[in-house]
Amino acid sequence: MKDRVLIANRGEIALRIMEACEELGLDYVVVYTRPDEESLHVRKAKRKYRIADYRDPNELLSVADEAKCTAIHPGYGFLAEDFRFARRVVKRSRPLTFIGPRWEVIRDLGSKLNVKRLAKELDIPVIPGTTEPLYNEIEAEARAEELFEWLRESGEEDPRLLIKASAGGGGMGIEEVRELEEVRPVFRRVRAYAKRLFGDEGVIIEAKISRFQHLEVQLLGTPHGELVHFGTRNCTIQSPGRQKRIEIAPGLDPQFVNYSFDADALLAEIINHSLKLAEAVSYDSVGTWEWLITPEGRAYLMEVNTRIQVENEISAKISQVKSQTVNLIKEQIRIALGDKLRYQQKDIHFSGTAIELRLVAEDTQRNFKPLSGTITRFSWEKHPWLTVRTHVPQDKPYTIPTEYDPNLALAIVWGKDTKEAQQRALVFLEEVIIEGKRSQGEPLVTNVSFLKNKLTEILRFPE
Amino acid sequence: MAIDHLKINQLLQRLRSRPYRIYEVKTPHTGYLREFLVKEGTEVKGPRGKWREIPGTPLFTLEREKNLKTIKARVSGTIHNLRTELEGRFVEAEEVVLEIRHPLSQEEVISEFLRETLILITAPETARYLLAPEIEKRIRKEGLGKVFVKPNEEILIMSFMKRETPIVHTGETMVIFRIFFTPQEVVTAGEPLLGLCLQEEVPYLERVISRICEEWPEK
């Protein structure tokens, strides 16, 4: 029987999964909520169902049964890294294929603390901090005191700690403290926030590495034991809320920036460490290993994302398998449906630099406040080096739903080297037109100017 | 606050001439609409009891993932526009299934009056809202109509696009007289969240509320 995929997500990722299914010759069904009615993922889908909430497994499974789906693609966010959902999908009376890793892998790598423990067992470096969730503020203060002392002893002049929701992610539920006296009130706030947003009030404390670059390693494994990587990415340019705004592949470029360390050796080191951990857990889908790199060339593993990432396409743009371009979403679906990889690491070749720009309706002058409103005009010039992913229609006004992040589009630019990719990204930002109005009538602003400014800083350590 | 007596009288007159509201009953989620439990013209009741512990009249059953759920009336009134063609079919979320013509209660009339009379803090965005923890604690302890909010005091928290933003009271010191929202439920931009008044206006408001209670006795 031909497989039919339920696309359990929205916006641009739903569109990319739809495209991948079409190219693989698979049927698909789309779900949407009332505020998303005008999204292109709804307009373009032939078969669609309105549901109450993308986060409700009952809604997704009810539609999957009604539409006779055989597999579920969770996209990113929502239920993509919820091992209970993945387990339910495969263990129910009418089982479906979960397009992602095995639920046990999601469970084991979904906990940052467990990843830390696993990494330590394999001699993979991790950021100093707690390895168990804290629930008690007295204990939190004691751990914080130890970490402040460690940072001072390491020569840090302005030591700071990060207090995080242990079940958090995507930059949510993280606060910074500079003094021991701040620890208790911040701990209480993060704990309350964690309880409200993630349903788990566990909190972790980590040393804050003040100057760093945020790197990622893109891996692909299969249930047949095959495992390859698609290089690295640099996601250092983020909003103050630690949400990524510009990503570059590869993660470091010694032809573009002078580093005080051997950049190629460091990239090889984080790739090898990532592969080692993936092999240890028999990783069997696409996944991202997130790293923090210091100006001295030290690398620390931060976490593993057991899903397709927003930024996966820049890795695909610089990779070729046997002279063919790669689509990681297609690879993810193909592998989940039982296919073999049919190539090895030596068949993957890398060329050029790819940059992704995330266009967001946000006021960068007012602490990156997310904005709602109506987009009245959205257009850009077409170029062979440019791919734009968006769920925002170009032929009619579009009201940004307030239930979700105000992401408008991803622009992916390729160049033969970093300099060319950077120049092309700037050309795109000069040419793109986004106009709209806020609910009170004033013009809608976006982060285009911020992206232009930050393009000059790519691949460099922040001052 | 300049209380507009003429406006208040006009409002009460309008409510007297059209003392009901139409509520659409929609499916809360997807599933099979198995059976209608009411007919066109059936009189239904909303939740009752001191703690609303007595559920409303069952309207229809909806089955999803082998769980049968009975959808009950959330307001009292008369059934209209029953979509019988949906029986036995798979329905999407938020599908309109029927309407209830609901006679306004004393409490609802009071709410309408206060919306027109109080200084309203409205939702700046369509988002979820919470009372600031300190305000919530004081209201729980002292009750509405007794808690003061000072200039620049954090009064609400807006949970918008997954971020929490405090909302600060910008006016003079006032009394929180009414809460118009349910915490964690989505409030549409422009809808009232809180109703404030000056301390000296509290007795007048209480007098008008007494008048409404006489005109619209609790049924």
Summary of the model, kept short:
The complex is a heterodimer of chains A (463) and B (219). Chain A has 463 residues and is α+β, with helices and mostly antiparallel strands.
List keywords for this structure.
heterodimer, A: 463 residues, alpha+beta, Rossmann fold, Dna Ligase, domain 1, D-amino Acid Aminotransferase, Chain A, domain 1, eight-stranded antiparallel β-sheet, 24 strands, 32% helix, 26% strand, B: 219 residues, OB fold (Dihydrolipoamide Acetyltransferase, E2P), 2 domains, four-stranded antiparallel β-sheet, 4 helices, 16 strands, 22% helix, Single_hybrid_motif (chain B)
Structural notes for this entry:
The complex is a heterodimer of chains A (463) and B (219). Chain A is an alpha+beta fold. Chain A is 32% helix and 26% strand. Chain A has 3 domains: 4-108, Rossmann fold (3-Layer(aba) Sandwich), CATH 3.40.50.20; 128-207, Dna Ligase, domain 1 (2-Layer Sandwich); 213-455, D-amino Acid Aminotransferase, Chain A, domain 1, CATH 3.30.470. Chain A contains 13 helices and 24 strands. The longest helix of chain A is centred in the middle third of the chain and has 19 residues, at 180-198. The model of chain A has no long low-confidence stretch (mean pLDDT 95). Chain B folds into 2 domains: 5-13 and 106-215, RNA polymerase II/Efflux pump adaptor protein, barrel-sandwich hybrid domain (OB fold (Dihydrolipoamide Acetyltransferase, E2P)); 20-103, OB fold (Dihydrolipoamide Acetyltransferase, E2P), CATH 2.40.50.100. With 219 residues, chain B is an alpha+beta fold. In chain B, the strands form 4 sheets. Chain B has a 4-stranded antiparallel beta sheet, with no helix packed on it. Chain B has a 4-stranded antiparallel beta sheet with strand order 5-4-2-7, with no helix packed on it. A 4-stranded antiparallel beta sheet of chain B has the order 9-16-14-11, with helices on one face. The model of chain B has no long low-confidence stretch (mean pLDDT 92).
